[in-house]
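Handout, page 2. Input:
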Amino acid sequence: MGCLLRRSVEALSRVQAAALWVVLGLLCLVPWVTSFAVVGVGGHDDSHITFYVARELAETGRYVNYNGESAEQSSSMAMVFVLALLHATFGIELPLLGYLVGLFFASATVALTYMLCLRIAPGPIQRRTALGLLGAAICATTWCFLYWVTTGMETSLAAAAAPALLLAMMAYEAEPTRPSRILAWVLTLAFFLTVRPENVLLAPCVAVALLTVCRFGEDCWRKSAVWLVAAPAALSVVRWLWFDSALPRTVLAKSGGFRARDGLGYLGESILASNGALYAAALVALAVTVWRLARGTLPAA
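Output:
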């Protein structure tokens, strides 16, 4: 990935390269500027559930809920560990720390979006660079993202985890025996699976998509697919042994059975409340990808 970044800079003139870093840096600052100038701090509710667990973990070394029980009170184990580590190291109060961590990972999400677009976009490196900036700009100007990253919750961590997972996976597949690539892949996968509880279901779906590429395309992702199925299963076992439940308590408390109509209604409201154009573009991209897979004309990444 670093080699690709160097190539993208080397393909530009000195002035263009400087402009690239300036534009990308400004895009990464958009969440901070939006928070300071417009939003302030978003609505705090579930964040304090996580703050309590992180404080107990940092100060006592125990992962417990409000009642002192060994139960997963927070939806985001990754957020708990990140906050606990930083709180124990620097002593910053958790509400402020959660706010700063959210904005930091928001900037990281913008940068990772640029890197992912640079990695997967077709064509010469100049075109990839332009598409990378376009992707970063879309990310940095999506209002629902800009609002929720200020709430002290795991929103920006979850957003950053997705492109980070794909980048780490592609690096691992390129050099599957290199220790640093294996370590980066394992840590990124662990972060992705623990940042949100639904990711243990999403990861096997990604594995199915990878196996589809193995069937129709030239590249084969079977090693990553195995990881994406085995790791969620292992995490569920660990959760069951540690907390006597394969899912966080918040998931169990909010789930009331499967109701397709309610789920589709919630999805529709989410689309209308955010940037609907992104969903439309995703559907078009999915349709084109499936069509090109079927024809065997998908370009190599």
